[in-house]
Design brief:
By secondary structure, the chain is an alpha+beta fold. Helix content is about 55%, strand content about 20%. Helix 30 runs parallel beside helix 32.
């Protein structure tokens, strides 16, 4: 193949020109996201049972569904939460599960469970979990010209929400790539029908008659088609309400004394809808819009489309102020620009490294030319395999830039040697490539071998790292083809004049080349190379020196094992924004929560460097986004605000920097760093254990924001209906409960289209909001037998603490204690303090039948680390097999693989020295080292074997191989480090994701290369000498036996 390409330069040039041309056209069409799409094998079954308590939802909905769903194939875990009116069942499946088929199986099991479910439930919804479920953009809408802080006047608040809900939201929903738009905050209107209980009772009417009349009268529809004169006429019935007077005049009942209209028994008027949340921007009331993208959509294009739409809407709504508080495309742009800058810096360092070792501008240019030839065609493979442009695929490209030139630089350096030996340039290009083709192929295949298992091992690791695996694997495979084809073709056409490569007469070099020659001769040729040869000779000839090297490696390796860094799952994001999460007692009203949130907002507004802050407030919980001018303000602001919030009584809080990583695979504590699940049957014992765990967690300085699920209880009134008494009055439990609900919170039977928006028509019992707990029994309800009666006539009342939710896992009752890491805390350190002998959780004194499991990010870290170690083991086996096939030996690959643990040692020590934790990105770097570190040893051992095949003595062959391969080894290592070092030193948006990867590769490659240059030749000499001795003994025994 090489000879053909050298002899057919035009064909070769056009072949690669076509690949580059087609590849260049495809880059613009690739989807751009911050992360690869995570197809997590999880399904949620959501079932609503209106007005049911958590206990009722659990017994009547959750348990029957679990009984059927627990037998779905490939089910890994089933977890459920029963809350007021809603059952949520989360099903986690094996990563190998085919979710389309699994979804059908789940729906079939739900259909089988329908006969066990109560009649009033809504149709169970099966939803697929995806990180795309997180918003890509958050926008706040506020009024211009209003107060700069606090609530808007009612008319402005209504107008703002109506404009956003009815006119802006539909336009945003139509933007390309947008799947869903959700609103929070804002003041809505409703039409309130306040029933006069006395008038209703006097006419012996019930509330249900009113709600039924409203629902039945507010209807329009198609009545059919009639024929007239050869034409079809569509008959329509029109009965929808247009105005409030129309509602007032509907007939509730026709009687002999006249029709009873709604206005006769109720007052109909427009009113403010009861608020269940608030949104504010910089202290001013606003409407918050969260935009979600389609599952496989392009995040950047979706965000740009929304921004473009907003610009057009600004012209139509001059009185509305649009503020984008979060835009994921901005984070993507910054992260991509940062990564591109690192890649460019790495390419420059790579070029300098190549020029230093190759010494010619033309050779350096040819080697650098391998970069675009290997990278640009990647887009076609990315498109075929469904790889998006994301931070992982670009990291793979950035790392691959240095690797793809390795083969080319080795070829070019060997061409120069062959020319110096007297061959013609064209002949030298072919012979030099052929001579090294085996070693280059083996070196490339070892790198590919460590990435193949990443794609094979099912799990989160494969989902996350498939992009980087494809990027490096494809670019290395293309670079090998480039090195065997176009590189020797170009090398064969280097300066064929007397000034050409290897010619005896050369013109005076340029000032740049002369400067390089002086530096190269002084640093490498006259200092580094002679020093290395002297030490190498002493290593392989002096037994004590060899022992020192081996002992030193053992000591360093042991030191690395006993100084493992702290562990975490995924690196924390470095951002100029952070969240302040406020946690108040569960019975805290929305008004009180809003008051405390406003207090926190005032403190946030005084922070040095604050740019903006936005709040999302619900009863007992609030989340405040604080955006600083730049990332340097974030940490000091978190510390300052934390001290001030600690002074607010009854306030639990935690602060977290915004991480660009989605919350994926976080088990039962989705979204939390730590989730401790306490398992047992008795809720009282579970509550006692969870309180003790909370107390112990709070004693740790690394933990914040501790929440206990069973603590989320609210005081309430339990109305126990007496069936016999209710029956005597002609009442059922369902009718009584419906009547009480209408009185206290109202019922919405239908809606009214008013001023271009739909508003609820709410029927209320009148005065229910002002009742005290003791007056519930005095409520008047309608009895068809006795007319107006009081609630206490048919029911007894008790005060009660009602849980907000009931949790189950694997069909067992559990409670979950969730917590987040404080700034500077690491997950591995916290877990080590909690579990194991003497841990804070193991010393609690658990009764039989009760235990705990640490989940959340720790569960994902444990599973992912196990997957990574499995991939590493498979990769090392493949690396060994590749080298065994290359060297036709079972023992020489073992010698070469000594460099692998040396690389691991360097990576661990590098992380430890820099104070970086070991996370999944660091493990990926260690995995890569398994294929990268053996490259240097392969080059050296292959050349030793070539020399020995020529009859050169063992020690002489080792020394000569060291002399000849030191330059290409340092060249290839230098180009790889040229791209890894900028990644390891990077500071900026998104850099925390790949910094540990750069650190492990840099430190591991430096340590393994240095030790490989001495330890591998030493072991080779020892093993080969022993093999020669054994051969000699066998020969002597054979000769003796022959005599």
């Amino acid at each position: 193949m090489t000879k053909f390409c050298v002899e057919r330069p035009v064909f070769t040039s056009m072949l690669f020109a076509g690949l580059v041309f087609l590849g260049s056209l495809n880059w613009g069409g690739l989807p751009v996201n911050l992360f690869p799409e995570i197809n997590q094998p999880s399904l949620c079954v959501i079932t609503k049972l209106t007005d049911a308590s958590p206990e009722e939802v659990e017994s009547r909905v959750t348990r029957p569904l679990e009984e059927e769903l627990c037998v779905v194939k490939q089910l890994k875990k089933i977890y459920s939460v029963s809350e007021n009116g809603v059952s949520t069942i989360v099903m986690d499946f094996d990563w190998a599960a085919k979710m389309d088929v699994t979804g059908l199986d789940v729906r079939e099991k739900i259909d089988r469970a329908r006969r066990k479910l109560p009649a009033g439930i809504e149709e169970p919804q099966v939803e697929k979990y995806s990180p795309a479920s997180w918003p890509i953009m958050v926008i706040h809408f506020s009024g211009k010209g209003g107060p700069r802080a606090g609530a808007l006047p009612a008319d402005q608040a209504h107008a703002l929400y109506a404009a956003v809900q009815a006119r802006i939201k539909p336009v945003i929903e139509r933007s390309k790539g947008v799947a869903l738009v959700q609103l929070s905050g804002g003041s809505e209107r409703e039409v309130r029908v306040a029933i006069d209980r006395a008038r209703l009772g006097a006419r012996r009417m019930s509330v249900d008659e009113i709600t039924a009349a409203l629902e039945q009268e507010n209807v329009s529809g198609r009545g059919g088609v009639i024929k007239e004169g050869g034409k079809d006429l569509v008959v329509r019935t029109v009965g929808e309400f247009k105005t409030i007077p129309e509602i007032e005049n509907i007939v509730i009942r026709s009687a002999s004394e006249g029709a009873v209209r709604l206005k006769d028994v109720a007052v109909v008027a427009e009113a403010d809808k009861a608020r269940d949340n608030y949104a504010r921007l910089n202290g001013m009331e606003s409407v918050q819009m969260s935009v979600f993208k389609e599952t496989e959509g392009n995040t950047v294009q979706a965000c740009e489309g929304v921004v473009s739409t907003l610009e057009n809407l600004r012209q139509l709504f001059p009185d509305v102020e649009f503020t984008v508080t979060f835009d994921q495309s901005v984070h993507i742009g910054k992260a991509m620009d940062m990564l591109k800058g690192n890649a460019l810096g790495g390419a420059v360092l790579c070029g300098l490294t190549l020029f230093f070792f190759l010494g010619r501008v033309s050779s350096t240019s040819i080697a650098l030319f391998a970069m675009p030839l290997s990278i640009l065609p990647l887009s076609m493979l990315f498109k075929f395999f469904g790889v998006s442009l994301n931070i992982f695929s670009l990291t793979g490209i950035a790392l691959g830039l240095g690797m793809v030139v390795d083969n080319a630089s080795i070829i070019l350096e060997n061409v120069g040697k062959h020319v110096q030996e007297g061959r013609l340039v064209r002949e030298a290009a072919v012979s030099a490539t052929t001579e090294l083709s085996g070693a280059m192929m083996a070196s490339t295949l070892t790198i590919l071998a460590v990435f193949v298992p990443v794609l094979m091992v099912p799990g989160l690791v494969a989902q996350l790292f498939s992009s980087i695996s494809y990027a490096i694997s494809f670019s290395m495979a293309i670079s090998l083809l480039v090195s065997f084809t176009i590189v020797p073709m170009l090398a064969a056409r280097q300066d064929l004049s007397p000034a050409g490569l290897g010619q005896p007469e050369r013109p005076k070099p340029s000032r740049l080349v002369a400067l390089r020659d002086r530096f190269y001769n002084k640093s490498f040729k006259n200092f580094l190379l002679p020093g290395y040869i002297r030490l190498l000779k002493k290593t392989i000839t002096d037994p004590m020196t060899g022992m020192y090297w081996l002992a030193g490696c053992v000591v360093l390796f042991a030191l690395g094992l006993f100084s493992l860094p702290e562990m975490e799952f995924l690196p924390k994001g470095r951002s100029e924004s952070f969240y302040v999460n406020l946690l108040l007692p569960p019975d805290t009203s929305l008004g009180e929560t809003d008051r405390i949130a406003a207090q926190v907002e005032r403190l946030a507004g005084k922070l040095d460097g604050v740019k903006t802050f936005a709040s999302d407030i619900t009863a007992s919980k609030a989340r405040i986004l604080v955006v600083m001018k730049n990332a340097s303000y974030a940490d000091p602001s978190i510390r300052q605000l934390g001290k001030e919030l600690a002074l607010i009584p009854s306030l639990d809080f935690f602060m977290e920097k915004i991480s660009p990583l989605p919350n994926i695979g976080l088990g039962g504590g989705r979204g939390s760093d730590l989730a401790i699940k306490v398992i047992g049957d008795d809720p009282a014992r579970l509550f006692a254990y969870s309180r003790e765990i909370k107390k112990r967690l709070l004693s740790l300085g690394d933990i914040q924001g501790v929440k206990v699920a069973l603590e989320e209880q609210v005081p309430g009134i339990l109305i126990k209906i007496d069936p016999e008494r209710a029956a005597r009055f002609g009442l059922t439990a369902e009718a009584l409960a419906s009547d009480i609900k209408t009185i206290l919170s109202g019922k919405v039977p239908t809606r009214l289209h008013l001023d271009a928006s739909d508003v609820d028509i709410r029927v209320t019992g009148g005065g229910g909001e002002a009742l005290s707990a003791d007056q519930i029994g005095e409520l008047v309800v309608w009895s068809p037998v006795a007319g107006n009666i009081k609630v206490k006539d048919v029911a007894s009342l008790e005060r009660d603490m009602a849980p907000l939710k009931m949790e189950r896992e694997e069909r067992q009752r559990i409670t979950t204690i969730t917590a987040n890491l404080a700034p500077g805390g690491t997950l591995g350190q916290v877990v080590k303090k909690l579990s194991g002998p003497g841990g804070l959780l193991d010393t609690i004194g658990w009764e039989p039948g009760y235990t705990y499991v640490i989940g959340g990010a720790n569960e994902s870290m444990r599973d992912s680390f196990r997957e990574m170690f499995k991939a590493l083991a498979i990769g090392l086996v493949l690396v060994y097999m590749v080298m065994a096939a290359q060297f036709e030996s079972f023992f020489q690959p073992l010698i070469i693989m000594v460099s692998v643990p040396l690389g691991f040692l360097g990576a661990i020590l590098g992380l430890r020295l820099l104070g970086a934790p070991l996370n999944i990105m660091g493990l990926l770097g260690i995995l890569m080292l398994g294929g990268v570190t053996v490259g240097s040893a392969i080059i050296m051992i292959d050349y030793i074997n070539i020399l020995r095949a020529r009859g050169v003595d063992l020690h002489e062959a080792v020394v000569e191989a060291g002399r000849s391969t030191l330059s290409p080894i340092l060249n290839t290592v230098g180009t790889t480090l040229a791209d890894a070092i900028p990644l390891g030193l990077a500071i900026g948006v998104g850099s925390e994701l790949y910094r540990d990867l750069g650190i492990t590769i840099t430190a591991g490659l430096l340590v393994s290369t240095f030790l490989t240059l001495f330890v591998v030749p030493l072991l080779y000499c020892r093993v080969e000498a022993a093999a020669d001795t054994i051969k000699l003994l066998k020969l002597k025994l054979m000769l003796r036996a022959a005599r």
